[in-house]
Amino acid sequence: MYVALSVGVRNLCVLCTQVYSVTIQERRKYIMKSYQRFFGTMLVIVLLSSFISLIGPICLQCWTQMDISLDNRHIFTLIGILFLSNTLNILLIVYRERFAKHYNKQNFISLVTDFLHMDYDAIISEGPSNMLEKIVTATNQIYSYMTGIHIQIWSSVIIAIVSIGLILSVNLPMGIIMLAYVPISYFGYKLLNKELARRSKRMQEETGRGFQELMSYLMEPDYYKQLPDYSEIITGMLPAVERIYGSMAKVNEFAQSVSSALQGLGSIVQNVIMMLIIYLFYRGALSPFFLMTATIILPLYFNAITTITNSNIQKMDYTIAKELHSQIIQRAENDSGDALDTVDSLDVNVSKLLLGGKVFPFEADVTLQKGDVGQVLGVSGTGKSTFVKTLIRYRNMDGIQSNAKKL
Fold first, then answer.
1. How many CB atoms lie within 10 A of CB 184?
2. For residue range 241-292, what is the model confidence (pLDDT) as tens digits?
3. Which of 260, 291, 354, 393 is deepest in the core (most CB within 10 A)?
4. 128-144 vs 288-330: helix axis angle to the nearest 10?
């Protein structure tokens, strides 16, 4: 192994890191500007869609107060409003998904670039395949939150407020029931997601280790293709498979059972309100206009509440994705900043190697000047590769100096 070559590779990495630092900052600014334009356009479409979806119930309420009879013109007006609202929702989906390709690609590249600049030992300990899986998941989580709930929450809040106001103006008990359901649903899902985040984190740790164990079996085809049968491989993989899918099952069981209970409560509230409306209508206490208003406003209201409560789930996923990005950045390699043409000498005086918290004996004592060629000799397993990796700063080690300065 040529030490001069190692020094050159090391400083080339420094130059690449300097270019990376500038490039990633520019990329993040570009992503943010693109998203700001997208957010502004989406917000206008979403608010316009929510406003149009509320025009029908508001018109019915006004016609009731003005004692206007319902005729074909009014009915076709309501149908046209519904079609217009649906058209805007389709437009919103198309625009969002066309933006998604660009947004996801840029976020994925940003995360992978930061991953490539992680500390060498951090990459080894986390496992490249495990990190790639996390990065793909994080990219999807960021997209789902930033292009979905983060924008739609505004229209959902408006729809919920207007819906409650319309019902309160006609029937106080129904309005109070709808109003009371909001905090019950919101905080119920918030507590659920808080506990789910804790369990999901433990599940990710279990599945991450499990997948690494599975990869250790499947990465050596030269070995298992020599076996008479694959029972040994399958038997060895079973504990990891059990751990992966067992941890997933526990989290899904908890999430789906509690979520089902909360959804059931929403269905009960919705049915109670509808039965109360029908009962009052047959008693003559409610007008046909209000009956039509309720059939339009209640689905809008409960869809809005679902969006608001789901914001907890997607916000949790988004937070996990941002935490992953933060962890990747925190574990970035430390660079000396030496330029390639400034390295004139390399002083080595080490008596041990550190690897994964373990100490290995290794003797090296030499001073090299620019242009010198060094050779590392030793039998297999004595630490030659590990030692050379410290010269190019894959790993940190005491006893190595560049230009009389500690690496």
1. 15
2. 998 888 888 888 888 888 888 888 888 888 888 888 888 888 888 777 777 7
3. 393
4. 150
Query: In Å, what is the CA distance from 387 to each residue of 65, 118, 121?
Result: 86, 19, 14
Task: Extract long-range pairs of 258-264: CB within 8 Å, 24+ residues apart.
Answer: 258/192, 259/189, 259/192, 262/185, 262/188, 262/189, 262/192, 262/309
- Which of 128, 92, 149 has the alpha carbon at shortest distance from 318? 149
pLDDT digits (tens, 9 = 90+) for 377-393: 777 766 677 677 666 66
H helices present in 117-171, as ranges: 120-126, 128-144, 150-170
| Angstrom distance (rounded) from CA 401 to CA 390 | 11
Under 8 Å between Cβ of 104 and 140? yes
For residues 60 and 76, what is the distance between their CA atoms, to the nearest angstrom? 13
Q: Do 326 and 153 contact (CB within 8 A), yes or no?
A: no
The rounded distance, in Å, linking the Cα atoms of 395 and 362 is 15
The distance between the two most distant Cα atoms of the chain, rounded to a whole number of Å, is 101
The CA radius of gyration of the chain, in Å to the nearest whole number, is 31
In a 13 Å sphere around the CA of 68, the CA atoms on its Cβ side amount to 13
Buried b (16+ CB within 10 A) or exposed e, 258-296: bbeeeeeebeebbeebeebbeebeeeeebbebbebbbeb
In a 10 Å sphere around its CB, with 0-12 CB exposed, 13-18 middle and 19+ buried, how is residue 8 labelled?
A: middle
Q: How many residues does the chain have?
A: 407
Pairing of strands 358-369, 345-355: antiparallel
Which pairs with CB-CB distance under 8 Å and at least 24 residues apart come from 257-261? 258/192, 259/189, 259/192
DSSP-derived secondary structure letter, 127: -
Q: What DSSP designation does 118 have? A: B
User: Dihedral through CA 252, CA 255, CA 256, CA 259, nearest 10?
Assistant: -170
Extract the tokens encoding 269.
């509230």
Paired strand residues for 352: 361
pLDDT digits (tens, 9 = 90+) for 196-248: 878 887 888 888 888 888 888 888 787 878 888 888 888 888 988 998 888 88
Which residues on neighbouring strands pair with residue 355, listed in sequence order?
358
User: Do residues 338 and 14 touch, judged by C-beta distance below 8 A?
Assistant: yes
